[in-house]
Amino acid sequence: xxxxxxxxxxxxxxxxxxxxxxxxxxxxxxxxxxxxxxxxxxxxxxxxxxxxxxxxxxxxxxxxxxxxxxxxxxxxxxxxxxxxxxxxxxxxxxxxxxxxxxxxxxxxxxxxxxxxxxxxxxxxxxxxxxxxxxxxxxxxxxxxxxxxxxxxxxxxxxxxxxxxxxxxxxxxxxxxxxxxxxxxxxxxxxxxxxxxxxxxxxxxxxxxxxxxxxxxxxxxxxxxxxxxxx
Length: 230
What we know:
Elements: E1 22-23, E2 26-27, H1 28-38, E3 43-48, H2 52-59, E4 68-73, H3 79-82, E5 94-97, E6 101-103, H4 107-116, E7 121-131, E8 135-139, E9 144-149, E10 152-164, H5 180-189, E11 194-199, E12 203-205, H6 209-218
Parallel strand pairs: 3-4, 7-11
Antiparallel strand pairs: 1-2, 5-10, 6-12, 7-10, 8-9
């Protein structure tokens, strides 16, 4: 999914779509395409909208990168799930990935888990830790019953990687904005099986300037001698 405007990363995205921002010597999206190829995935559908020609001109049909790329161009933004309505039905689970996510998750292990659990949809989840910068007070209304100084809260967050059975595309409205949380909520209400797959490997969602800076640091090659000199 590479159609977003990347507003939180402006002005970097004023002149290019977020998936084309450089990380080292390659755009974010090229790193994702390479990872998919190295995982054995040959056919890739890329949703585009904002400055779409920069993506299509760079990747072409994908042959230069060892894959086959088909583009799903949105005339208007359809959200993170809307364009899936037009993905060709292969009869097998579809791997869906945000165009701003870098991760070392094992896609084959995720697929095996999806099949073993007889899931309709599998959502990769990553652990996010948030430090509250204050003392958190628990009360029973009037009386203080506990206080925790600057606790670290831990939650699973949506990692932006999904496995979806093609039959679920029937739940996506035609040509209307529809986000992935909307799809998840809809199929949960339909009593279908939605499960989580924990990501223990490297993962970063490049949504903010700080995330982009961290991703660049993570990708820096480190070479030191015994004295610690580069």
